[in-house]
Design goal:
Length: 218
C-alpha cells in the first residue's frame, strides 16, 4: 500500500515543482530544473515510503503531513546544494504561499467547511480511537470535544517528528510546525496551539475554531 501513496506523492510533488518551485528556485546558482527535479524525486522516494499512510491519518493532519514531506525533500535537496537553512525556509515559504494562492477560493471554502462537519468529527474520533494501536510511523492522538464549530486533537505521538528524525532532519521540525500557522491563516482553520512535542511538550494541543483567528504560542 505504501507504493500507492508514493505514486500520489510523486505526482503531487511534480505538480508543485512545475507550478511554483522551479520559478522560486530559478535564480539559485547552477539551477537546472530537470536535473534538480530528478534529484528531488530520488530524495522523495525513501521519505514517502517511510511516511504514515494518508488513509490512516486523520483529515486535519493530512495536509500538514503532505507539506512536511515536501519541505523535507526540499530541505535535503537544497542542503546538498550548500543553501543555508535560513534561505531554505524563506524559499519554502514562497513556494507554499504560491501553492495556496493557486488553490481555488471555492475549494478552500469547501475544505474548511468539511473540516467542521459532523462527518469530519466522526472520522477524527475514528482515527483517534484506532491510533491507540498505531505503530511508530503513525500519529497517535486523542479527540477533544471543544464545543460547537470547534474541535481539538491532542497529538501524543507526532509522526512528522519521528519521520524527520529517521531521516536526519530533526532540525527542520520546528519550521515544519510553523507551517500549520500559515495553512490556518490562509485556509481559515482558526488554529490555536500552545505547545508542541517538537518544543519539548508531552503532546501537541491543536484546537480548530471556525471563523477564529490563528493563535500559535508554539
Amino acid at each position: 500500500m505504501a507504493g500507492l501513496d508514493l505514486k500520489s506523492i510523486e505526482k503531487q510533488f511534480r505538480k508543485i515543482w512545475n507550478r511554483s518551485a522551479s520559478g522560486v528556485l530559478g535564480d539559485l546558482p547552477e539551477f537546472d530544473t530537470d536535473l534538480w527535479l530528478s534529484q528531488a524525486l530520488e530524495i522523495l522516494k525513501p521519505i514517502a515510503i517511510d511516511a504514515p499512510l494518508f488513509r490512516e491519518t486523520a483529515p486535519g493532519l493530512r495536509l500538514p503531513l503532505a507539506g512536511a514531506i515536501n519541505v523535507m525533500v526540499l530541505f535535503k535537496l537544497l542542503s546538498e546544494k550548500n543553501i543555508s537553512p535560513e534561505e531554505i525556509k524563506s524559499l519554502s515559504d514562497k513556494i507554499l504561499k504560491l501553492e495556496i494562492d493557486r488553490f481555488p477560493v471555492l475549494a478552500r471554502r469547501v475544505s474548511t467547511w468539511f473540516l467542521f462537519t459532523s462527518v469530519a468529527a466522526r472520522m477524527t474520533r475514528h482515527y483517534a480511537d484506532r491510533s491507540n494501536k498505531a505503530d511508530e510511523r503513525q500519529f497517535k492522538l486523542q479527540y477533544v470535544d471543544t464545543g460547537e464549530n470547534s474541535f481539538g486533537m491532542n497529538i501524543t505521538q507526532c509522526a512528522i517528528c519521528r519521520l524527520a528524525g529517521r531521516h536526519d532532519m530533526s532540525s527542520m521540525v520546528p519550521y515544519i510546525c510553523s507551517i500549520d500557522g500559515m495553512l490556518s491563516e490562509m485556509l481559515g482553520w482558526g488554529l490555536k496551539r500552545t505547545q508542541t512535542i517538537a518544543g519539548g511538550a508531552e503532546h501537541c494541543d491543536f484546537v480548530f475554531r471556525k471563523g477564529a483567528p490563528t493563535e500559535l504560542e508554539a
